[in-house]
Amino acid sequence: VERGGHSHFELQQILIAVAGTIYLKIETLTGEIFEFTLDSPNKGVYIPKGSWRTMKYTHNCVQMCIASNEYDESDYIRDYKDFKNLSS
């Protein structure tokens, strides 16, 4: 299952795979790309605000997300072109 495909103006997160595996791809506003494999509950990845993220999950995956803010739809950047325009 693939999820993500968005960024946030303010929200910061830490993702942890409690069970299964998460393949995480992060792109920063400066164009840097980072890829991570989360397959153990004793490691996580910090995702700073303004980072485009895509996650692929194994069928048995359970994710824990530690978030800096409560859910706010207006904080989402869901269009990749809008995300890329933030860096210019």
Shape: globular
Query: How many E strands?
Result: 8
- Following the backbone from N to C, one meets helices and strands in this order, namely EEEEEEEEH
Counting H and I runs of at least 4 residues, what is the number of helices? Answer: 1
Structural class, from secondary structure content? mainly beta
Q: What report would you give on this structure?
A:
There is one protein chain. The protein is mainly β. It is 7% helix and 50% strand. It has a five-stranded antiparallel beta sheet with strand order 4-3-6-1-8. A three-stranded antiparallel beta sheet has the order 5-2-7, with no helix packed on it. The chain is globular, with a radius of gyration of 13 Å.
